[in-house]
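Section 5: illustrative case.
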């Protein structure tokens, strides 16, 4: 069942796993041009461990409304915090993938009273340097009518290593999400929205872990990027073998235990 959170400018869609559980709340934030269903294994695994898990869509993505004006990572951070408060969370753990990792880091810095743990999956805390030719080619590739097909293809290429169980269904959700003009426009605005560069953990009290696929194609040296991100948030690093940008879908057998450890550590701190 899809739930919705009312926000200024529209509604944010989310799935709730383990709704009757009494354990800590975990909020999951996906990256751009992804669907919340990518957290299906995390939601199920953490719910089995006794936690409540809310996996949300970004603005204009999945089943969230396309009426928003702001599609930045900071807006996503505010949505994640609002969702945590809506569900009555305290000492919340937030899990973010890609752009979502920046969002949960911002939330942890802005709301230390609310966020007690963060897990960063394939994090974009800074943007890689792209040459003018690459930027021009990307803008061309994202134009309609071929843009939705290109993004679906690109989404596939980021799953270097193991193919997740149920990947065809996940890809179909992404493809269906990109097809309507208004939804693709929201995704396009997210891709080109100003991105935050997070270089310190000032104000943050949250425990942190960085989880990176060893074959993540977004980085020339995934381990080096994971080490740098961990130094920013004062966290540990988990490198995931046979895995690209979506470790939570490709290797839940590694990621879910790492998240359980984080939640247990956060609970022990309270």
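Designed sequence:
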């Amino acid at each position: 069942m899809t739930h919705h959170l009312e926000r200024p400018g529209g509604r944010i869609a989310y799935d709730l796993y383990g709704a009757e559980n009494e354990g800590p709340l975990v909020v999951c934030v996906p990256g751009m041009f992804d669907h919340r269903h990518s957290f299906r294994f995390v939601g199920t695994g953490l719910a089995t461990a006794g936690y409540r898990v809310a996996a949300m869509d970004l603005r204009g993505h999945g089943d969230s409304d396309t009426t928003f004006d702001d599609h930045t990572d900071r807006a996503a951070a505010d949505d994640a915090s609002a969702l945590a408060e809506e569900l009555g969370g305290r000492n919340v753990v937030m899990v973010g993938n890609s752009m979502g990792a920046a969002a949960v880091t911002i939330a942890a810095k802005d709301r230390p009273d609310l966020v007690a743990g963060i897990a960063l999956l394939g994090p974009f805390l800074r943007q890689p340097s792209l040459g003018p030719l690459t930027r021009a080619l990307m803008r061309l590739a994202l134009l309609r009518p071929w843009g939705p097909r290109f993004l679906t293809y690109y989404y596939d290429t980021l799953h270097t290593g193991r193919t997740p169980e149920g990947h065809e269904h996940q890809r179909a959700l992404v493809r269906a999400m990109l097809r309507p003009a208004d939804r693709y426009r929201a995704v396009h605005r997210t891709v080109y929205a100003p991105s935050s560069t997070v270089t310190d953990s000032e104000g943050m009290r949250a425990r942190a872990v960085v989880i990176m696929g060893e074959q993540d194609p977004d980085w020339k040296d995934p381990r080096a990027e994971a080490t740098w991100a961990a130094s920013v948030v004062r966290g540990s690093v988990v490198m995931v073998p046979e895995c690209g940008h979506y470790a939570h879908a490709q290797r839940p057998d590694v990621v879910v235990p790492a998240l359980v450890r984080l939640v247990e550590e956060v609970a022990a701190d309270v």
